[in-house]
Write a structure and sequence with these properties.
The structure is a homodimer of 437-residue chains.
Chain A lengths: L2 E6 L3 H9 L5 E7 L3 E3 L4 H5 L9 E3 H4 L6 E5 L2 E5 L4 E4 L4 E3 L2 E4 L3 E3 L17 H20 L3 H7 L1 E5 L3 H17 L13 E5 L11 H13 L2 E4 L2 E7 L2 E6 L6 E4 L2 E4 L3 E3 L2 H9 L9 E2 L5 E2 L2 E6 L4 E2 L1 E2 L7 E2 L4 H19 L13 E7 L2 E7 L4 E5 L1 H14 L3 H17 L18
Parallel strand pairs in A: 1-2, 1-9, 2-5, 9-21, 11-12, 11-17, 12-13, 19-22
Antiparallel strand pairs in A: 3-4, 6-7, 7-8, 10-18, 14-15, 15-16, 20-21, 23-24, 25-26, 26-27
Helix pairs in contact in A: 1-9, 4-5
Amino acid sequence: MTARIVIVGAGFGGLEAARTLRGADAAITVIEKTNHHLFQPLLYQVATAGLAAPAIAAPVRHLFRHQDNVTTLLAEVTDVDATANEVRLSDGQVLPYDHLIVAAGATHSYFGRDDWARFAPGLKTLADAFEIRRRVLLAFEAAEKEADPAKRASWLTFVVIGGGPTGVEMAGTLAEIARDTLPGEFRRIDPAAARIVLLEGGPRVLQAMPESLSASAQGQLEKLGVEVRVAARVVGIDEQGLEVQPAGDAPRFRIGSHCVVWAAGVAASPLGRQIALATGAQTDRAGRVLVEPDLTVPGYPNISVIGDLAAASSYLAGHEPRPVPGVSPAAKQMGRAAAANVLRRLRGAPSQAFRYRDYGNLATIGRNSAVVDLSTPWRRIEFSGWPAWIFWLFAHIYFLIGFRNRLVVLIDWASAYWSRQRYARVVAALDPGMREG
Amino acid sequence: MTARIVIVGAGFGGLEAARTLRGADAAITVIEKTNHHLFQPLLYQVATAGLAAPAIAAPVRHLFRHQDNVTTLLAEVTDVDATANEVRLSDGQVLPYDHLIVAAGATHSYFGRDDWARFAPGLKTLADAFEIRRRVLLAFEAAEKEADPAKRASWLTFVVIGGGPTGVEMAGTLAEIARDTLPGEFRRIDPAAARIVLLEGGPRVLQAMPESLSASAQGQLEKLGVEVRVAARVVGIDEQGLEVQPAGDAPRFRIGSHCVVWAAGVAASPLGRQIALATGAQTDRAGRVLVEPDLTVPGYPNISVIGDLAAASSYLAGHEPRPVPGVSPAAKQMGRAAAANVLRRLRGAPSQAFRYRDYGNLATIGRNSAVVDLSTPWRRIEFSGWPAWIFWLFAHIYFLIGFRNRLVVLIDWASAYWSRQRYARVVAALDPGMREG
């Protein structure tokens, strides 16, 4: 009998799971709440006007057009009934499944301060990226019109909260916009005088990287003109700016800004807690579901949770299990592993434990600036600066889905590199309101 | 003394006026209420997911970065004080001028039925284009989810109101999306079965063209699968569809549709009536300001009105004055002429009457389909089909501003042509609300 497989989410994990099931005797339904798969590693380029949205987004159903066993559904899953083996959609529709793979991803977390969201948007969706692009570009416009020097300085102050890869990319690129792209275009302000601040609560940026690369990244940021403040915790955000508490005895201070970007906290999709309630599974502090070694939910061998929604471990014979990081290669690998386990189950074979292959870590900072921590079978290789940037560039273009997008992205970048211009400096609607939800 | 010149609007007319003043001893302020110049002839491509927005939009201040006598201001002009020689902005700021060139353009007109706007968006801004793209793509998604055949047929019915160039382009391209782009991607519906209706109140489509080309355009549309209904007047639009009154004795009929595009009426910017009030000038039925032969407002030689906001005539010695059509080449020519007259006035020379050079008319219908009516010094040349389409293609690429955009547009089109795919099938936010207020 044809197995009914439901996959929730068409991010890296869900997409890879469905692709792995190509050719299987299965009726697969991929449910995604937007109409597109998003190449999230480049979303910051859309937010900073370097790329147009279609360059990093492809319609989900287009990606599956040649895979006949997949039906794509634009819908949102509100809950999973693990007893009845059904998912319920927000329009009330109910979908039965024999196997369920949940890859609903993560969203931002404001650590209980959701009121900060209005003043400091995060970066997860295209709508988020458009909103940040709007704020950045309109801040320069407002500064050009402002006569009062103090107010003008506030408009020209940009703050990024969180020193992970997204925060580092955003801060570096904002500095480039101010120093390289905009000068010469304004008559009353000097965009190059803009202040870009990167705030990190922990002791260093890029904490997933070796310490030497964190130091290199901070140095490269500072060379671009970014003010990096580590061990600095944000304790308040409002329309006029934010309040920062440095570690130790240093007094609190205030930064006036109308353009603050949140790159600090990540929380699993609310579906994680719903699944935990329905199955008795545990969740971690970020709301991720603790899964078995084979990525299934304890007691429910027909429900897998993968990607950013899963608190998973990697198993290698003779080694301690290691937690799997929330990065896109891990999501892809989990998608492949979960789908392979579904195929094993369909033919009555036992499932296998997931093993994460760590190829390393890389982060870009700006033009010619990046850090790479490569994991090879022999040893780890660290490098930074221009070679790291070239490596980062080609790795990302390679992984962008579809030849069409790769070519256009390459042209956009080549052109941006030579001209120091940014292609997508367009604000479609001046008022906010484009953000989802 | 340096002359203060204010230009309202950075469409084709305003842009060309400012460029003509390059090198003049003038302090020029270009006021535009969006941050970009829009290549409007290709806006339908953004609405139909063929192009990304940045391919046809460039930041105004970027276009003037090398023209030192221009200051760009992102602002909206609310009124003109022709006695005090000042314009007032929506933020209360007041800007004095010695010469004023108003090129504020046009918007849609619903002929007094503004309540139809919600159900049948028009196509003038990028936000409009995103809204239409959203409705088109989500209609197919809704049809895929709809079990009831009658409701599904409504979702798969697309209606374009107005058989001018925009309506013809929209209808033709919608047919292509349904017949060429989407088939194979849905599992429950056949997108090729979608019904595309083009409604025109007058006796034929493309009424500005010779009759033979109207007939050819209608034939090409029908070949693409568009149902063309001329002499059919829309008398009602609501959430479920629209009510049509054919000419003569034929009874009214209803078309069920959730995706209706308004390409019927154009009205001048409200600034036209405000200027008329302030100066005693006349406006025509569309709200355009009746200008003198030199494009100035009667009695106000330091105020010019150009582009879609002007009801202007073309003067050629020995001929009757002829009305200037509302097309982009005319706007550009008026911009050049008005600026040249400002320069003449600055050196005390008399102004000259405007003469419109008519190079002809062209409209595209779809892949390989277009009509061209070329005006040469010797005779008019009419052609249609593939040669007309190639002509249209190169004419539009040539006129797109900036090498960068031309190249990307060419690649997007070449790729779309060969693959029959459309690049920009992305909906950033599923709810409406992206349209400008």
